[in-house]
Specification:
The protein is mainly alpha-helical. It has helices at about 5-10, 10-30, 35-40, 45-75, 75-95, 100-130, 130-160, 165-185, 200-205, 205-235, 240-265, 270-290, 290-300, 305-320, 325-355, 360-375, 385-395. It has 17 helices and no strands.
């Protein structure tokens, strides 16, 4: 692995793509502080409002299957710009919604643009970054963490004025990202071979990739239980909710960038996943059993295992199989984002109809299921030991370089 300075010395095109990625990931946490305000403004129930996440991630998951097909025909830069353009249009339209149904529909269109951009951004950053794939993935996860942490603050700041403002704000920031990509990113060459629509599904036939993807599905169910349902039990203003999830997002970013890589080298990627899933289960039970202060504390702390998982799952999906990285990423993200699509509505409905502790108990159970999958199918993940060894060797020779 490169030193911190090496990771930061990147081409301008990488930073332009990373900035746009930050804004794209802001869209995930942007609505968190304003979920209660949206429910009030549109006279909707919490479970109806949770469909903002469900439509977004369901479309994102399915659209992942076409990202490679599109980018291999029109090139990475044009695919990024197409994704950004869709996000700009649908984020702006979301701000004009007059019903929760319209808002859910516009978020679905937003999810399509997000899929085209996010899947391609990772491939572009990996291809253009100096320092190899690990440095690129750390940069990508740093963008994710920064976007997720900034999203609630932006949502709170603009949402306290009007719940529609964060959507218009996102469209504006994405327009800035669009201009940066147009001006700073050179046209990426089209791949020598075009990717078929079936390629991501075929890639999942690999035992290691399918194990990683389905473990991540259960992990994402737990992740988005925290993200989508917790704002409704905090009983705070948009600023209060935004502050809680800013702290959570900072933990995500720090654990992604500074926690995951050394832990991978010390105990191995698979063991990091076991550790992070166990911690997330404990913190979810903590949320379920705590009063108001405990809910805040355990919500913020849950960002640590989420950050660890995000980095290790992403790198594992890229390295565990022999599929091209864009294809592996598409197949992996198709499966794992299904967890993000299912969790918000199911968790919120359970919380409404049974009790607020139930969603977190289910989230903790999903973490345990993920750990069981990792253990039972551990023989499919032997390739990750080689990756961990490579990282250790890179560290050993770095001082002499």
């Amino acid at each position: 692995m490169q030193s911190g300075g090496g990771i930061l010395r990147q081409p301008t095109s990488v930073w332009a793509t990373a900035f746009a990625a930050v804004v794209a990931f802001m869209g995930i946490g942007l609505v968190d502080p304003i979920l209660p305000s949206i429910a009030q403004g549109l006279k909707a129930t919490p479970s109806e409002v949770s469909l903002l996440f469900t439509s977004y991630f369901l479309v994102t998951a399915v659209a992942m299957l076409i990202t490679g097909w599109v980018s291999s025909r029109i090139g990475g830069k044009r695919t990024l710009l197409a994704g950004l353009a869709l996000v700009i249009v649908f984020a702006a339209l979301a701000g004009t919604s007059t019903s929760v149904g319209e808002l859910v529909g516009f978020r679905a269109g937003w999810g399509l643009g997000n899929a085209l951009f996010v899947a391609t951004a990772l491939a572009v950053i990996v291809g253009a970054a100096s320092g190899g794939a690990e440095a690129a993935i750390i940069l990508y996860e740093a963008a994710l963490g920064l976007g997720i942490s900034a999203g609630p603050l932006v949502g709170a700041l603009l949402g306290d004025w009007n719940w529609r403002a964060p959507f218009f704000g996102t469209a504006t920031l994405m327009a800035v990202g669009f201009v940066l990509i147009v001006t700073l990113l050179k046209a990426t060459p089209k791949p020598a071979a075009r990717t078929s629509l079936a390629a991501p599904i075929k890639a999942l036939a690999h035992g290691g990739l399918s194990t990683t993807a389905f473990t991540a599905l259960f992990y994402n169910f737990a992740f988005f239980t925290v993200l989508a349902f917790t704002p409704f039990i905090l009983h705070m203003s948009p600023y209060g909710i935004g502050a809680v999830f800013f702290g959570w997002g900072v933990c995500v970013a720090l654990a992604s960038v500074f926690g995951a890589p050394p832990l991978q080298r010390k105990i191995g990627s698979v063991n990091v996943l076991h550790l992070a899933l166990a911690l997330l289960a404990v913190f979810q039970i903590g949320i379920a059993l705590s009063g108001h202060v405990g809910i805040i504390l355990f919500t913020v702390l849950s960002g640590i295992p989420i950050g660890l998982n995000n980095t290790v799952f992403t790198e594992s999906a890229m390295e565990v199989s022999d599929a091209p990285r864009p294809v592996a990423s598409a197949g992996y993200n198709f499966v794992r984002w299904m967890g993000g699509a299912l969790a918000p509505f199911i968790a919120t409905k359970l919380g409404e109809e049974i009790g607020v502790a139930v969603p977190y108990a289910l989230g903790a159970a999903c973490c345990l299921v993920g750990m069981a999958i990792l253990y039972v199918r551990r023989h499919h993940l032997r390739a990750l030991s080689r990756v961990d060894t490579d990282h250790t060797l890179q560290d050993a020779v770095a001082p002499a370089g």
